Amino acid sequence: MSDVFIIGTACTVFGKQADKSFHQLVREAYLDVIADAGLTPDDSSRIEQAWFGNCGMGQWGQGGIRGQVCFTPLVEEGLFAQRVPIINVEALAPRDRSLFMVPARTFFRANRR
Question: What is the pTM of this model?
């Protein structure tokens, strides 16, 4: 069995933020996660996997790979490591337990064998 750790969490402020792009919201949340974990963007190579929660980005034209699209500017700026697997979770309230339940079920299912 592998050890799994959640080292930092963050969430943007709930509410309409029409003055910010998806990229700006992701940047804000990502930098808050890094700070919450006690890391700096220079430590991004230590991140082995990311889960990206969203709700309805398809309404604005981004049909798939939403996390990858939103993290691309961070990768280009050297704030997030290249080739980190990003799992996209679309849910009514993706910042809730959905981001914990899916990986937990996957982990326990894989380790039952």
Answer: 0.73
